[in-house]
Amino acid sequence: MSTREALTSTAEQLVAPAPGPGRQALLIAQRALAERSRSLVVWSVGVAAITAVQLAVYPSIATTAAGWQQMLDAWPEAFRAAFDLDAYTTGPGFLNAELFSMIVPLVLVAVALGSAAAATAAEEERGTADLLLALPVARTTVLLAKALAMVVSVVAVAAVAAVTVAVGAPLVDLDVSTAGILAGCAMVTLLALLVGAAGLVLGALTGHRAAVLGGGIGLALTAFLVDALAPMADWLEPWQDASPFAWALRSDPLTSGFAVLDALLLASVALVLTGAAVAVYRRRDIDSR
């Protein structure tokens, strides 16, 4: 089914009989998820494969732990601190260094930004925004429905990563708690949703997917580099606490569990950005090409 045909089908459900805002939001979110279903399958398979490969490497690290630790002890202290390499030979330390400090967060950020770009900018660029907004549906409902689809997408891929780690860790004798896995995945999920919410703002402002993807990726990489390089550059240290990557990972959730205050900070900023996106989208003239 083409995008326009899918929109027509959704429109028929939205018009007669006219459902309430909640039902409208669910219908629009369902359409958004259906359009990105193939992409979500690809991302899910990809993150599962990457996670499985990294887990397969762990036995060789564990059996040569003394040698690895001796080598890591010779590296600069700031570099070890940046990537928490002092705990590399432990289960949580290995997962943090190889997966949760960069790969899993960036995969989830990519999923969030893909959904954010599709939320408004893609509708304008393919000429379906006018059809959607001509329906008896408030713009606020439209954008919040697309935000809901983004949340579901990111949570789904994060769940695949969590299940892969939870199933694979015992197979390679990697000692990490289920609570730690869930906490780690929850924190990087909130990180990705914050970046995705920033993408919603960019999409509402510009109507261009390139701006959403470029700006969002730039924000995510800047936040990552500030957090990772701060221990090695004195001038970056004051900025580290402003990095969403630091908010998500500074508590070492794989070991220490879910950090409530940091999670609330990530969620609050994401909600504020989503509210800003709604405000901008309600006031902007939509240009369907």
From TrEMBL:
Q: Which organism is it from?
A: Longivirga aurantiaca
Where, by residue number, does the polypeptide cross the bilayer? 40-61, 99-122, 143-169, 181-205, 212-233, 253-281
- Superkingdom, according to UniProt? Bacteria
Recite the UniProt keywords alphabetically. Membrane, Transmembrane, Transmembrane helix
* Keyword Acetylation attributed: no
What is the protein's name according to its record? ABC transporter permease subunit
